[in-house]
Amino acid sequence: MKRVLGVVAVLLVACVALLAIRGSGLESRQLDVAPAHPIPVDAAAAARRLSESIRFRTISHFDRSNLDRAAYFAFHDFLARSYPRAHRVLARERVDELTLLYTWRGSDPSLAPVMLLAHQDVVPVPAGSEERWTRPPWEGTIADGFVWGRGTMDDKGNLMAQLEAVEMLAAHGFAPTRTILLGFGHDEEVGGTGAQAVAALLESRGIRPDFVLDEGMAVIRGVIPGLEAPAALVGVAEKGYLSVRLTVRQPGGHSSTPPPHTAVGILATAIHRLERAPMPARLEGVSRALFDYLAPELPFSRRVIFANLWLFEPVVKRFLASSPGTNATLRTTTAVTMVSGSPKDNVLPNEAEAVVNFRVLPGDDVEGVLEHVRAAVGDERVEVAPLGTGSEPSPVSDPDSPSFALLQRTIGEIFPGALVAPALVLGGTDARYYTGVSDDVYRFGPYRFGPEDMGRAHGIDERVGVDDHADAIRFYVRLLENAQRP
Ligand SMILES: [Zn+2]
Fold first, then answer.
1. Which residues are catalytic?
2. How is domain 240-391 classified at the CATH fold level?
3. What is the model's pLDDT at position 374?
4. Full-model pTM
5. The CATH fold of domain 43-238+395-482
6. How far is the CA of 158 from the centre of ligand 1 (A)?
7. Distance 475 CA to ligand 1 centre (A)
8. Which of the four, 72, 231, 303, 319, has the lowest number of CB atoms within 10 Å?
9. 350 C-alpha vs ligand 1 centroid, how far in Å?
């Protein structure tokens, strides 16, 4: 008996030692980068220009005829006025009427161009919510170290910072060897026909950018438990999108003589079954890569867990799935968003309808989601049909590419101490249309955000820090400089 216990004890010790050795052996994926030499930026002047850009109400609409074209054209003139040197070196084209494509021709046509994206359009400020803003949403007020207003975070900050960078480089006599492209869509928030048109134009010209950089992720503080340093998350893929309509048709009639289940009742059961059958969670692909980059930087107690996913994966998955933000990185999510039934309280519904929105994880696809819904509902009285065509998840860009390393190096120069990691973008961006013209499509806006900033984009009190905007400009300056080296 003693001997058996002894063997068990030895095995246990060996097992703990193995976990610990693996835990301490995780190799860091961070680059050792010296901070950039100081890049002088007139932060106050840049903030004033960003402030002015907010006053153009370039709001996109699903119905194109509702677009305020004059606001867009005035915005284009404002850009030309604000960045005269940039507009001397850049050739400007209007594509799909309101989208802008700028080209700064490089001296060496054998080098593939690099491309930065941003979008001009913003989402509206819903009536009645205006009073809840600390500063008015359309004035671009500069106060308390921030520029406030709709579009500062999403996405005029990036757009203006990119032009500030080109303006500075042009002023210093910089002449690119590698062509620089800027693509500013006009309707990202409602589908991105502008971005689609630019991508098609590049394709028709045989132009394949070395990499494309769009909005998506940022330098985020305090979002990953146990991680002290801010994380510069670079989106290497984005989820797909599908809405599904569930319809139940039943004989209507007076509610005084109802059947045991009305159309609404049958629909409710279907919804219940669907919510109880989430699509499977997977810690692989992009979500796995995120942890591969961040785990080595965690304190030892947590590092041990990530270094031994062969053992702890089920626990880690359960932990991540327990909060909506991380759950969404693991699986195709299910969100029941709309329901309707009878129009009157004493009338049985002829028809009840629900709409369920899915965000499709890379690795899943639209057809598979539809099959899942039919199987989960398992009731022939419930008609399952896609609403529109949906969109498949994007391809995944390589975090081991030279252009990812270029981004990583530049992030290190401007945001010393930030940890770089590839990540999955949960929303949609214009970038998805460029995956056909470039292998390396990344989604990263060089701004610092913390937990207190969640919900500001598209919400109330959208703002960016004056100093953060200056650093975003520095980032783009360095990125364009660094990108010149072949
Ligand atoms: Zn955006």
1. 121, 188
2. Alpha-Beta Plaits (3.30.70)
3. 98
4. 0.92
5. Aminopeptidase (3.40.630)
6. 10
7. 19
8. 319
9. 40
